[in-house]
Design goal:
84 residues; alpha+beta; four-stranded mixed sheet; 2 helices; globular
């Protein structure tokens, strides 16, 4: 049985975002043009990040790029993360 993962909160500045790891459409400069992204930012402003992003043991972002950038755009200082 796999070990249960725990969710912790990390400062957004501590999360390592590697642009080469995700497609061009997920890059920060492209996100605000998307209506869906603006809706996600509004949701994060209201509810916070509901589903944690996933990072490596070295805090490299590996899943949840849209949620991460929405949190940044919403002005959050910390986001929930799961170490994967």
């Amino acid at each position: 049985m796999p070990a249960a993962s725990s969710i912790i909160y990390l400062p957004v500045a501590a999360i390592r975002v590697m642009p080469e790891d995700y497609p061009l459409t997920v890059r920060p400069g492209n996100l605000p043009r998307s209506g869906a992204f603006r809706d996600l930012v509004k949701s994060v402003e209201k509810n916070g990040v509901v589903v944690p992003v996933v990072v490596t043991k070295t805090n490299k972002l590996i899943e949840g790029h849209y949620r991460f950038w929405a949190a940044v755009a919403a002005g959050l200082d910390r986001v929930p993360v799961e170490v994967g």
